[in-house]
Amino acid sequence: MKEQVKAWATPAISAVPYVLLGFVLIHVQPASGAANTIDGNVQKSNTNFHYIEQKYGNQGGGNRGIRIYLPGGGRDQTYKFSPNPHNDKWYNKNQSSFYRQSAEGLADYYLGHQNRFPRYDTFKETIHGVQYTLGQP
Fold it and tell me: What is the pTM of this model?
């Protein structure tokens, strides 16, 4: 069934997006947090690594992971953190630092292991006193 978008003249409703599917009215909410995804670069031994936060489950407290890769077609690996970083209150106010520390650890591993990222569930890193296992997403 093709989606049809309907705009209402009622001011309280017209500012919010709705989609009419048959006879069911569904509120369509934009993906929250999409603009807040954390990413950055780490430079180690003349090698540039790019990293980006990965979101699993709901956008609020769902589990997180990290994608790290070499820009320009180099190696690319994605991991899921265990335990969920949201379990540590520090993470919620220091997410940029959290992902940077994780990326630095992965970059060090990569450079020390013949330009390979670690296999799933074999790499553990401690960030703010919590040990995380980087597993398969």
Answer: 0.73
